[in-house]
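QA checklist item 7 of 12: single-chain prediction sanity check.
[x] sequence parsed
[x] length recorded as 151
[x] structure emitted
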Amino acid sequence: MVNNKRKIPVREGLFTASSSAGGKPRLLGGKCLSCGEVIFPKLEICPNCQEEKIREITLSRRGKIYSHTVVMQQPRPYYKGPVPYGLGYVELPEGVRIETLFTECDPETLEIGEEVELIIDKLYDDDQGNELITYKFKPINAYASGKNGGK
């Protein structure tokens, strides 16, 4: 039996796959050549100055939790993954804040200012059995600091 399961990005142009960029995934953002605003995802027009001079850039893989919450109820129809889950914003060194899911941690243990790292992970399986993949962030020191029961 042949496995025809594919990995499909939830949206094209948000990130590079782990097979590129030296084996590490990266988010694809934009930088306005007029005002210097850094944006994610990349847009055609700068939301700060409305210029159309946007250059694609790769963003840092690591950042810090800016804000977070624990979602206890499954929102429909957009999210089909497990609950509860961590959701929030990560601030990257470029100054941009990324809305994200948090993974590989107990969402109750997340802390503002905690360092996190980008991963590409399964969001859910679609009706054809393909994996929809997206970017998520995981705490860097979750296991080293004894969080999550030291797992």
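[x] summary fact logged: The two ends are 35 Å apart (CA to CA).
[ ] second reviewer sign-off
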